[in-house]
């Protein structure tokens, strides 16, 4: 993750926290450095402050999009005005957070917005089939019995994980770590399994007591 932010204390706490959540962070404090690194294309997401010492974050965002980059961008704004938000989203931001924000929420949004990993992008329509369900990791769709199943991004991540293990048991700890990161509470998994079952059918996901869950379709 590329963090463009000039408040030293915020940078320090975010960097430390994000590393704990297994997110690699490169932090710079000016718009110029941010833009240069963003265009080098090694990043999966940029978190961009609006109030920077050399130029507005909006300017960085506009230049980035003008260069054809589709790097996902979350803007950080000290102001909560609707105008700022609209401006950011119009200039190609994918999401925004108003300061002060909760760290957990930032991590959740970073995970949600971060560009799909290359192996998913190159997957050349590699469908994952388990039982009567079929998941398309590129289009991010799931269909069971040929009927589209609408899923939230988090539900999709969980379905993807379970189905990509090809009917094997996924341990609870693995699912929590991969879908929610290390800050997850244990019971969030049960809640999402329940959501997912309402979409794909109660019998489609088996509970393996004391171990985890298995997708059988
Ligand atoms: Ca600032």
Short account of what is shown:
Helix 2 (31-40) packs parallel to helix 3. The protein is built from 9 helices and 12 strands.
What descriptors fit this protein?
20% strand; alpha/beta; 217 residues; 4-stranded antiparallel beta sheet
Task: List each distinct ligand once.
Answer: calcium ion
Let me know the number of strands.
12
Q: Please state the CA-atom Rg, rounded to the nearest Å.
A: 19 Å
Q: Average pLDDT, to the nearest integer?
A: 87
Which percent bin holds the helix content? 40-55%
Question: Approximately how much beta-strand content do the residues carry?
Answer: 15-25%
* Largest sheet composition: 5 strands, parallel
- Ends: how far apart? 35 Å
Order of helices and strands: EHEHEHEHEHHEEEEHEHHEE
Q: Please give the order of strands in the largest beta sheet.
A: 2-1-3-4-5
Number of helices: 9
Overall spatial form: elongated
In words, what does this structure look like?
By secondary structure, the protein is α/β, with parallel strands linked by helices. The chain has nine helices and twelve strands. It has helices spanning 8-20, 31-40, 57-66, 82-90, 103-113, 118-121, 153-164, 172-180, 187-200, and strands at residues 2-4, 26-28, 46-49, 73-77, 95-98, 128-130, 133-136, 141-144, 147-149, 169-171, 205-208, 212-215. Strands 2-1-3-4-5 form a five-stranded parallel sheet, with helices on both faces. A four-stranded antiparallel sheet has the order 6-7-8-9, covered by helices on one side. β6 (128-130) and β7 (133-136) form a beta hairpin. The relative contact order is 0.10.
């Amino acid at each position: 993750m590329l963090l463009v932010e000039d408040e030293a204390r915020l940078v320090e706490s975010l960097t430390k926290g994000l590393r704990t959540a297994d997110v690699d962070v490169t932090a710079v404090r000016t718009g110029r450095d941010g833009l240069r690194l963003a265009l080098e294309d090694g990043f999966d997401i940029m978190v961009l402050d609006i109030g920077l010492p050399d130029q507005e974050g909006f300017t960085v965002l506009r230049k980035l999009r003008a260069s054809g980059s589709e790097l996902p961008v979350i803007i950080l704004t000290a102001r909560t005005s609707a105008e700022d938000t609209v401006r950011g989203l119009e200039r190609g931001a994918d999401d925004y957070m108003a300061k002060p924000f909760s760290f957990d929420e930032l991590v959740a949004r970073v995970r949600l917005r971060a560009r799909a990993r290359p192996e998913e992008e190159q997957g050349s329509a590699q469908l994952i089939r388990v039982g009567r369900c079929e998941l398309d990791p590129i289009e991010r769709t799931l269909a069971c019995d040929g009927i589209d199943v609408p899923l939230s991004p988090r539900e999709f991540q969980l379905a993807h994980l379970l189905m990509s293990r090809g009917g094997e048991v996924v341990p609870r700890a693995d699912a929590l770590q991969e879908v929610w990161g290390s800050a997850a509470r244990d019971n969030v998994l049960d809640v999402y399994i329940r959501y997912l079952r309402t979409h794909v059918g109660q019998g489609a996901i088996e509970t393996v007591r004391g171990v985890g869950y298995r997708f059988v379709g």
